[in-house]
Amino acid sequence: xxxxxxxxxxxxxxxxxxxxxxxxxxxxxxxxxxxxxxxxxxxxxxxxxxxxxxxxxxxxxxxxxxxxxxxxxxxxxxxxxxxxxxxxxxxxxxxxxxxxxxxxxxxxxxxxxxxxxxxxxxxxxxxxxxxxxxxxxxxxxxxxxxxxxxxxxxxxxx
Length: 158
Known about the structure:
CATH class of the largest domain: Alpha Beta
CATH topology of the largest domain: Oxidized Rhodanese, domain 1
Number of helices: 7
Strand order of the largest sheet: 1-5-4-2-3
Low-confidence stretches: 1-52
Strand content: 5-15%
Structural class: alpha/beta
Largest sheet: 5 strands, parallel
Order of helices and strands: HEHEHEHHEHEH
Number of strands: 5
Mean pLDDT: 78
Number of domains: 2
């Protein structure tokens, strides 16, 4: 195997292509920047999309102020057996792509808030679900670890 060790030049296939970040004039700069950073993508949803109003990630204090929330655990069955926030909904990450319709049905009931152990997997799943058309979905920052560290109640998993 041979590697190219030459220095990349303009127009070189080794340099990233330029990207344009689209934001509407009414978008708050922090919101636009946050969406790009959290998704790891350099494009944004259409400005008229309702997903612009719901952040990709929420903290516990924001969750406390929300109505009509469907909490979805995306951890493994083994992790869930240790503890769960609720027994409301459980979709392991490896089953999520086959259960998009479940997420769309839960979205009709309210905002879908996904949690995992620390918030990383749930954030990745949130991005994937938004790309699949589920707009009222977000990730719980800190996951169940954040929940427990705030002294909140957990239940035995099922």
